[in-house]
Design brief:
The structure is a homodimer. By secondary structure, the first copy, chain A, is α/β, with parallel strands linked by helices. Chain A folds into two domains: 4-50, RecR Domain 1 (Helicase, Ruva Protein, domain 3, Orthogonal Bundle); 70-173, 3-Layer(aba) Sandwich (Dna Topoisomerase Vi A Subunit, Chain: A, domain 2), CATH 3.40.1360.10. Chain A is 38% helix and 12% strand. The first copy, chain A, contains seven helices and six strands, in the order H-H-H-E-E-E-H-E-H-E-H-E-H. The first copy, chain A, has a four-stranded parallel beta sheet with strand order 4-3-5-6, with helices on one face. Chain A has a two-stranded antiparallel ribbon with strand order 1-2. The longest helix of chain A is centred in the N-terminal third of the chain and has 15 residues, at 36-50. The relative contact order of chain A is 0.08.
């Protein structure tokens, strides 16, 4: 619809997830009005991500250094590991302020149709962490926080089977049920079914 | 919440209009998974817009060449000019497929509070176009398509006054009223008032 660089920018922005043609147009025309330095900061941030980000050697989340801030924080409880699919799940759990342990990022979930098997995920690294702790830092609990969908459930089931080999290790899974603040009337049957089967005695 | 380049990218993306922290995070993690060439195309498009886009000498919309595709299209009706505020309004009118004339981009709307007066808009250029056409291309109609808000209305009123000096020139304004597919019940009083005062005899 437009010509030249503006249309190219609209096209490229429109390829990003969650950005439709209208938003892409709005952003492009906004960028026509900003200082060149503002665009420079954006392109420089893009360039640094393009050149590769580094991952924590221990938990696998995105990190500036060899070990991320959480793994190198002496105040964290090293006997607990929360297993998540992606780096973006770490700040989601952190925001609850309910968890003081460590994390382990799998790098995805089992998905046979898409060709993602156990060897594609950081499962071997997880087992090594559980088996390799020194005596006073032995892992006592693994909380499986994969997504509550088909792939995440399959991954959780697989992990539970692998973790049976560690006697004394507590393995738990995040509760499924009705989201807080929601309406039973509008809950889908899967969620309501989970809320029923996971009901707590009061 | 994250570290290093990923957080920088999330911060920069979050500065764009319509992109909240969640979308910025989603886009940043998406960009971690794409080919470097995809990021290169985006940064290159940003760079070209940063280095300046060119505008059509005639109508003032963004353009690759000295004259945009619409102004240089011999099939367009050169006796009609649709006056819009911004380049992004041109494709909006084009999508209706109802208009075959030319455009004139003002580059904004009158806004005394923000210090935007008539001299800041391309009004002089509009008057020159109307007065300067050769005999067989004389402008016969100006359609004022500024936004139906305070600034757009003030701009329209100002333009109508200026255009009175051209005898025989038809000057019109886009109709205001209820949007198609909307509910009278939910219409704001301004819109409903306009729909009433602009009612058509059937």
């Amino acid at each position: 619809m437009y010509e030249g660089p503006v249309q190219d920018l609209i096209d490229e922005l429109g390829r990003l997830p969650g950005i439709g043609p209208k938003s892409a147009q709005r952003i492009a025309f906004h960028l026509l009005t900003v200082e060149p330095a503002d665009i420079d900061r954006l392109t420089s941030a893009l360039g640094r991500v393009r050149d590769g980000v580094t991952y924590c050697e221990e938990c696998g989340t995105v990190s500036d250094a060899d070990r991320c801030r959480i793994c190198s924080d002496p105040r964290r409880d090293r006997t607990r590991i929360c297993v998540v699919e992606e780096p973006k799940d770490v700040p989601a759990v952190e925001r609850t302020r309910e968890y003081k342990g460590l994390y382990h990022v799998l790098g995805g979930a089992l998905n046979p149709i898409a060709g993602v098997g156990p060897d594609h995920l950081r499962i071997r690294e997880l087992l090594a962490r559980i088996g390799g702790g020194s005596e006073d830092e032995e892992v006592a609990e693994v909380i499986i926080a994969t997504d509550p969908n088909t792939e995440g459930e399959a991954t959780a089931t697989y992990l539970v089977r692998m973790l049976r080999d560690f006697p004394g290790l507590a393995v738990s899974r995040l509760a499924s049920g009705l989201p807080m603040g929601s309406d039973i009337e509008y809950a889908d049957e899967m969620t309501l079914g989970r809320a029923l089967s996971g009901r707590r005695t009061l």
